[in-house]
Amino acid sequence: MDTVIGIDIGTQSTKALVIDCHGRILAERSQGYRVDTPRPLWAEQWPDVWWEAMIQCLRACLEDPEVDPRSVKGLCVSSLYGGSGIPVDADIRPLHPCLIWMDRRAEAQVQWVKEHIDMTRLEAITGNGVDSYYGFTKMMWLKQERPETWAQTHYLLPPNSYINYRLSGEIAIDHSSAGNIGGIYDLAARDWSTEMLDALELDRDKLPSRLVESKVPVGGLLPSLADSLGLTANIPVVAGGVDAAMATLAAGATRPGNHVAMIGTSMCWGVINQSVEAGEGLISMPHVLNGGRDLYTFGGALTAGAAVSWFVDTFDGEDPTVGERGDAYERLELPARALPPGAEGLLFLPYLMGERSPVWDARASACFIGLSLYHQRHHLYRAVLEGVTFALRHNMEASKRQGSPLDSHLIVVGGATRSDLWMQIIADVTHMPVYTYRENVEAALGAALLAGQAASLIDLDQSLRHGTLIERAVPSDTATRRYDDLFSLYCQLYPRLKPIMHRLNINNPPESDPTS
């Protein structure tokens, strides 16, 4: 039976899986690693860590008794948003770690852009705004703070482009990764923006000239690598793209209006559309499927499941009566479920590491408001679930203001789906029935689906039927009315508390690197 491989280079782990022509997963393996954080607000990774993890995962999958390596007809790589990209020299050797999506060191560059660039024009061209999240501000930091590295840099390669080069020997960048850089990519033209590159004083020749759709093979698997893995030489290495869009594809999002919330450590909600008006704080890029026509517009919260884990570890983890960590969740879920919407007068802002869209504030911070002696741990636990869900709706409302149509139901994937309570809160806050998959749906599967399409094994023009959708929760009229009132209060909290948050913040971003 013919098969294909999907690979996802993640922030904390890499995963590989093998699927057949029906989308059935035959084997999967993952390998973990850490993010390097040499200074507060910095986050970087050397690409060899990704490569070695990927090779280990591939070997383990190909050794699985259900997989015949010679039956593999193609592979595709999804990857984390690589921010600056990997600076490589003329021999494609990495010169500096990749400044990944969570790195916030480029705050001084953000301020320069706001003071010197016509933001209306930048947003009109790129469909995006400015923040230290975006890769173009990180590129500016490299140029200004690491001039020797910049001078030697031949290309700046997103993670999947670098991995694809090592697999195939070919240099290319997919449109989703290029668009996600922001600032220097013309969203309408599907090309680099010479106007913005000149305005931002960034070098056009350091960007790959070959831009391709995510579904397009960039080259064939190198014979030497194929031999070492037991694969067939020259099978297509498909371009792939950004993991959030890949996971959305895996969840069945193929047409405008389809939207998916991925809630794990962080939260990412995205919708497929075909046009976008910038200015609402969301991120837009070509989708990984039909990228010449469709856009993927998304927003996210930095801490979602991480906020829940923080609460349980901080307020329940040292209780001598507590058993296993899983018991804490079970113990909190039951009494929290009995509470009315609003946790009897509590609201939680989930900005435990600053916040992304639509707030875009690295110095935003979290808070509970409404606390009294009456409240107990299960009240706070429910407030945390509700606060993260309000952050989800905050992004959805921004998308509606952009004019994006949304399907009448919401698909949720990720670790949050294990909580029935959370699924019900999401249905009530968003006014939408919530569906989840029985199977594990994530970015590596999206990559495998694109590989399957390139190998003519899977038709993605048809409705995806690789998983089983289950209706988990439907909105309650009474609860939705209460949550509407609470959401209005939630939206008022950040603007009113922002000045205090900034004065309290202990990690004010440095304006420059004093070691440079």
Describe the model.
This protein has 516 residues and is α+β, with helices and mostly antiparallel strands. The protein folds into two domains: 3-251 and 441-469, ATPase, nucleotide binding domain (Nucleotidyltransferase, domain 5), CATH 3.30.420.40; 300-439 and 475-504, Nucleotidyltransferase, domain 5, CATH 3.30.420. It contains 16 helices and 23 strands. A seven-stranded mixed sheet has the order 17-18-16-15-21-22-23. It has a six-stranded mixed sheet with strand order 3-2-1-5-14-13. A two-stranded antiparallel ribbon has the order 4-7. A hairpin with a 3-residue loop joins strand 15 (259-263) and strand 16. The chain is globular. The chain starts with a strand and ends in a 12-residue tail after the last helix.
